[in-house]
Amino acid sequence: MNFNQLSQMEQLDYLSDLLANEIFNFGTHPYNELLPGQQLTVKQGFHESLKDENIQVTDFLIQAVENEFTASPMTSFLLEYVALNDTNHERTDETKAINAALKIVKLSNQKFIVPGGYIIPKGYTLYHPTFGYFGFKGDGKPYTPAGGKKALQSILTEGGLLDFTDSVWWMEKI
């Protein structure tokens, strides 16, 4: 099985199974009820599974996980895994420069043009002074993670996005 050739839903199911298997090593308790040492073991086991199965973790995959599993620790586990194991994907100088200029901003009453009108998204997003508001292709709006400002801060703390291949930039409608 090649994880990277699976559909997005199959990838999400597979990652969910990997994490569930690690949690079930400690019984049937939910992750948030495990002891701190057990939670650490779950995270390390999940990271080992990703490495053993040569799963390529992309920004697009992380965003899909965050959208699908809002109450799961999987998003933070994937972000940490990328930060610890980013040997196959070096950020280019251009990507580093874009990441360095990104700021976290709160959307409030900004209008963005979409087919048939405009949207007014709420929440925190990433903003670049030249390119505008960050979003993922196909998402239809600026990126506003379920984890809010804290999720965006963790992205920036880990060096920012790996690349901007699956991204679009949104400009505010004036």
From TrEMBL:
Superkingdom in the source lineage: Bacteria
Name used for this protein in its record: Uncharacterized protein
Organism: Paenibacillus dendrobii
